[in-house]
Amino acid sequence: MSPQITPIADTAQDLELSERILNPDGSRIANPRLDPFVADVDGAQLRSLLRDMVILRRIDAEGVALQRQGQLGLWAPCQGQEATQIGTARAIAPEDYVFPSYRETGVIYARGAQPGDYVRMWRGEEGAAYDPAALGVAPLQIIIGAQTLHAVGYALGIQHDGAKEVAVTYFGDGATSQGDVNEAMIFAASYQAPVVFVCQNNHWAISEPVSVQSQYPIAGRAPGFGIPSVRVDGNDVLACMAAMRWALDHARAGKGPAYIEAVTYRMGPHTTADDPTRYRDQDELESWRRRDPIARLEANLRATGDLTDEHLAETQAAADAVAKEMRAACLGMVTRPPLAVFDGVYAEPHTGLERQRGEYAAYLASFEGEAGA
């Protein structure tokens, strides 16, 4: 399923070089390569995917609001990338293990995250984000591309154990220029590790456009490592699901790694600390707004008679309920006392640690006089 290697002239051509099942207007087209992988998906399942995407967008909006209100230190929005995250994540088996970057809110949602799991890390609370063992998801990775190496290492462990699980790793277009990602692909190909690489090409590595970073489709790099790849329209949830099912089948069958490039768009800022109006053209933003993944699936379901106003109302109510629970969990978090950072570092008391605790206690006490002045 390797892509045609054609130079990219602009974002419109970039999208046209991608495989799809649903057009931006919601109409369905035949795709002989992808259709067999989603032949079982009926109207009810499509409504479920729509529900997931609507809930994800609401979670994302609540995260931005909480950050703006001073409840979170930072938030990495994923608006516009709902189809890529939900479509691929819903194809992953419970026993598979996921290695995300910091933007995969939809992936942890699909894996069963609880309301507080979305905000705990961004609030700087104890316990990072969630229980990795419960979700089958490694902690969110801030270091760009590092999670790809972790995924390959885990996949080699799967291979050593003779198991049928697959490791899946997500990263952005900017990460593909990192040495870690390329090293991970070399190891995966050399040892035929059961790992799936998912590149969410959202067109912007902070303020650097992908057209500067890569003159050819990113999926075209994978065959150079000996890894088969597919390039899909990342705003088409069916195409994303089909691509992931293909990749998982390939890896699970002992054929080695597979690579997906999902061409999508980051509608918001890189993080809430970023101002995209300084580097992004408004016309480009509007052109991608017309390719909205949620509106696309909704139009398809309307056309087939599988969606009613009642369905949409129920979905929006569910999304609002999740956001309400997320906000309550965030506001209800109790930050540990500063000295608790020393708890649990060693199993037994340690004189060096006690000395450090005393020094830090003295440092904190030095501010008490200032507060009363």
Describe this structure in words.
The strands form two sheets. Strands 1-2-3-7-6 form a five-stranded parallel beta sheet, sandwiched between helices. The N terminus is likely disordered. The N and C termini lie far apart (70 Å). α3 runs parallel beside α10 and α7 packs parallel to α8. The protein is of the alpha/beta class and 373 residues long. It has 15 helices and seven strands.
Cα gyration radius (Å): 22 Å
Number of H- or I-type helical stretches: 15
Stretches where pLDDT falls below 50 for ≥5 residues? Answer: 2-13
What is the global morphology? globular
- Mean pLDDT level: 93
How many DSSP E strands?
7
Please trace the helix and strand order, writing H or E for each element: HHHEHHHHEHEEEHEHEHHHHH
What structural category characterises the helix and strand content?
alpha/beta
Strand residue percentage: 5-15%
Oligomeric state of the chains in view: single chain
Main beta-sheet strand count, sense and barrel state: 5 strands, parallel
Strand arrangement within the widest β-sheet reads 1-2-3-7-6
Q: How far is it from the N-terminal to the C-terminal residue, by CA?
A: 70 Å
Q: Helix coverage percent of residues?
A: 40-55%
